[in-house]
């Protein structure tokens, strides 16, 4: 899951003005209050314009019970345990593939989602949902390098730049096995989804070589550290960049020439859902181009609905960080569910972190 929060002073000030709890009933007094119809939505924090939930409640009389999580893996474990029943979740591509393979998702009745027609064709028949049965694309983006223009001699163009000893203790990498191992694999010219033990081992060795110059392996805190100019460069998701640049005008983003990960977050109905008709109504609502544009503008990520994109402010529509040229995207690849082979990555990651 790609969306994370930036805990800058500006954001914290804004957060103090809105309802900000990890588990909450949205709408803050919306018309859905008191309704017998309750839709349980489980999404990453700050990954929806909450005013749209209020709008949905007013239009349908369905109350949205909204809970949040931090990572795909946390969501997966919670849904797998069955301790709480959710009607909608928002997994990333590889997690859609994993959950559908394990029978954890219901097939969506697209007769109830007519606005699915607005989803661009390049986001359909994907590797993670080739028959378009279990998911509807929500937002997408890329993984790249954010750098501080004042702190580097020249703009990075390659993953090689993350191994430049000149920036010793001045680099941030993700505390994430797939992302950081993926960067090393891409630098070596391998697929980010390789299951070849030799290629994975070479990536591990490359990261061991890099580790002495890495300042820290980060999660959410990485964005604030870049904004605060604690590091010269690091790896980040494209959707976080507009907010980061809004906090520090010296930051810039580049997709390395070797290519990178292009990811999609999707909307799915767990097989434990009690209210799939209402879940499909909510999916349909989010696919409406007007609603989609408002949501994408709030979140700051890239939308898979062109009719929604066309309604965004010009500076967002033309932002190459959010919408790279097709020639660049041709070099990118999504993460796939590696099934049991993920253990090879986990083994290398544990060795790297203990090195």
TrEMBL record:
Statement: the UniProt record of this protein carries the keyword Signal: yes
PROSITE patterns on file: PROKAR_LIPOPROTEIN (PS51257)
InterPro entries associated with the record: SBP, Sperm_putr-bd
Domain of life: Bacteria
Compartments, record wording: Periplasm
Pfam family, one: SBP_bac_8
Keywords assigned by UniProt, alphabetized: Periplasm, Signal, Transport
Signal peptide: 1-25
Coiled coil regions in record: none
PANTHER family from the UniProt entry: SPERMIDINE/PUTRESCINE-BINDING PERIPLASMIC PROTEIN, SPERMIDINE_PUTRESCINE-BINDING PERIPLASMIC PROTEIN
This protein's name: Spermidine/putrescine ABC transporter substrate-binding protein
């Amino acid at each position: 899951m790609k969306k994370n929060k930036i805990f800058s002073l500006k954001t914290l000030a804004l957060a103090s003005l809105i309802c900000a709890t990890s588990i909450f009933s949205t709408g803050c007094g919306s018309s859905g209050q008191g309704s017998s119809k309750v839709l349980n939505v489980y999404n990453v924090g700050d990954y929806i314009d909450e005013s749209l939930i209020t709008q949905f409640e007013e239009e349908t009389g369905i109350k949205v019970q909204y809970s949040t999580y931090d990572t795909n893996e946390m969501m997966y474990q919670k849904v797998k345990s069955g301790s709480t029943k959710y009607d909608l979740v928002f997994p990333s591509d590889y997690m859609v593939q994993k959950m559908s393979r394990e029978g954890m998702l219901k097939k969506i009745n697209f007769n109830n989602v007519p606005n699915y027609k607005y989803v661009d064709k390049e986001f359909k028949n994907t590797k993670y949902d080739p028959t378009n049965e279990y998911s509807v694309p929500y937002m997408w983006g890329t993984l790249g390098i954010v750098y501080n223009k004042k702190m580097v001699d020249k703009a990075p163009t390659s993953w090689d730049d993350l191994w430049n000893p000149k920036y010793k203790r001045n680099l941030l990498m993700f505390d994430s096995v797939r992302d950081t191992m993926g960067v090393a694999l891409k630098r070596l010219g391998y697929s980010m989804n390789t299951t070849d033990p030799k290629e994975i081992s070479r990536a591990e060795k490359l990261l061991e070589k890099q580790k002495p110059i890495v300042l820290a392996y980060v999660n959410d805190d990485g964005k604030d550290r870049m904004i605060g100019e604690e590091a010269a460069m690091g790896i980040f998701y494209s959707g976080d960049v507009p907010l980061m640049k809004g906090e520090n005008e010296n930051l810039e983003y580049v997709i390395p020439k070797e290519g990178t990960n292009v990811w999609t977050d999707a909307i799915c109905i767990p097989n434990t859902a009690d209210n799939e008709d209402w879940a499909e109504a909510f999916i349909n609502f989010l696919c409406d181009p007007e609603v989609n544009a408002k949501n994408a503008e709030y979140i700051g990520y890239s939308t898979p609905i062109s009719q929604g994109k066309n309604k965004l402010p010009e500076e967002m529509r033309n932002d190459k960080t959010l919408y790279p040229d097709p020639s660049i995207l041709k070099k990118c690849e999504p993460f796939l569910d590696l099934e049991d082979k993920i253990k090879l990555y986990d083994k290398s990651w544990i060795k790297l972190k203990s090195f």
